[in-house]
Amino acid sequence: MSTSPLRPIRVYSAPLSGHAHRVRLFLSLLGVPFECIDIDLRQREQRAPGFLARNAFGQVPV
Question: Could you give the CA distance from residue 51 to residue 25 in angstroms, rounded to a whole number?
Answer without folding.
Answer: 23
